[in-house]
Write a structure and sequence with these properties.
single chain; mainly alpha
Length: about 80
């Protein structure tokens, strides 16, 4: 087995794992802004904690409009069963 055929895919896998790890950490952490000399450091807090109210509103709207509609609720409550 030649190392040349294995080295490229292994190196690519390691680089991909590292970049995905960093990306996921940047999405969820830190939970609170970090300050340096009175200025907020970029990318703090992570995008998920920063936009949590917007995300919750969007998920609630999607569930209310598509997953469990008012007609579904009405038919469930008015059915004899």
């Amino acid at each position: 087995m030649d190392i040349q055929y294995v080295a490229g895919p292994l190196l690519g896998a390691c680089i991909g794992y590292f970049t995905n790890f960093v990306a996921v950490k940047m999405l969820f952490r830190p939970h609170h802004p970090k300050m340096l000399c009175g200025r907020r450091l970029p990318f703090t807090p992570g995008i998920i904690p920063r936009r949590q109210p917007d995300l919750a509103r969007a998920v609630g709207k999607a569930v209310g409009e598509n997953l469990f509609t008012s007609q579904d609720l009405r038919s469930l409550l008015l059915s004899p069963a």
